[in-house]
Amino acid sequence: LAEGLLLARERAMRLAFAVTTLLFCVQAVVDLGLPVPPFAVFVACRLLIALVFSPVSSILNAHTLASLGGDRARFGEERLWGAISWAIANMILGVVMDHLGTWVMYIGTVVLGGCAVVLLSGSSGARKHQPLPAAAPGTEQDASPTNSKLPIGAANISSGQLLKAYMTNPQSRSFFFAVFCLGVGMSLVENLLFLLFVEDMGASNALCGFSVVVTVAFEIPLLSQSKILLERCGCRLLFSIGLVCYIVRVLGYTICPNGWCVVAFEPLHGVTFACCHLAAVQYVSSITPEEQLTTGQGVMCSIQQGLGYFVGTLGGGFVIQLFGEKVLYRGAAS
């Protein structure tokens, strides 16, 4: 749906936002007390939302990279706006949900989902897209921080050939394994940490929202300096810095007596996300032909946010139930 032209990516994102908004609102039948099996409704809606909305991250990455042309190292300067909105939304939701309940999420989803669809449908915004800017000499793949070559060498290859090229190259195969491990680790934090906050430490929704603000406060300056970081550190070192910060962070969780102590370790999440995300997006774009940008980013997101998150969340839930959070996070660090 999304490969190729910029407008094709816009249409795919518009469809994903519209369908996801409707599916999220279907869950309201449980809150309204209608005679339906609650768990079955939630599971069905969440599965469909995951199916429809999961490509959006990779499409946005490819859309941004294509728009930047030969200056893709500045990707972080665009991505930081997502971090800012993430912090604002979580802080507001945390406070509002403490006072008004969870139903406000339905209103927010309808408003924001509708805005996204309208903005992506605007004919004036669609017309301003011009042909992709040509890269300046010396700024394309040969000057990338990884100095990687295209995996196939041909301008037009199939998605199957692209995936095969990724998996037959030792360097890219090792990279995708590291991305999978990162996805497993991040899922334990993003999907299960609030259980530790609320159930074990008695933290409020407002404190959960504040913890997100703290992480983003450290993401923003790093994302804004993405070009400098990539030029000076390169993808491999930047990714490694992010992993080290993750290890320190999750080990810190196991010694925390309360929610505020956990918040003190949250800046490390900002460093992990910014460094690893910048390195991963840049590396994949450097080994992927122009015509396959969306597919390349999709492979990365599928391995990290799809397979990695699935394995991490499912396995992490069992570990917490059987052994507790300390064993889970110490195991994640190892």
Q: Could you give a quick summary of the protein structure above?
A:
The chain contains 16 helices and no strands. The protein has 334 residues and is mainly α.
Instruction: Flag low-confidence runs.
Output: 123-155
Mean pLDDT: 81
Percent strand: under 5%
Number of strands: 0
**Strand-and-helix sequence, N→C?**
HHHHHHHHHHHHHHHH
Q: In this structure, how is the largest beta sheet organized?
A: none
Shape: globular
Residue share in helix: over 70%
* Estimated radius of gyration: 20 Å
Derived structural class: mainly alpha
The total of helices stands at: 16
How far do the termini sit from each other?
39 Å
Describe this structure in words.
The protein is an all-alpha fold and 334 residues long. 77% of the residues lie in helices and 0% in strands. Helix 9 (170-190) packs across helix 15 (293-323) and helix 14 runs antiparallel to helix 15 (293-323). The longest helix has 31 residues, at 293-323. It is globular and about 50 Å long. 36% of the residues are buried. The model is unreliable at 123-155 (pLDDT under 50).
How are the secondary structure elements laid out?
Elements: H1 6-26, H2 28-31, H3 38-53, H4 56-68, H5 75-100, H6 104-121, H7 123-127, H8 159-168, H9 170-190, H10 193-200, H11 205-224, H12 226-253, H13 259-265, H14 267-286, H15 293-323, H16 325-333
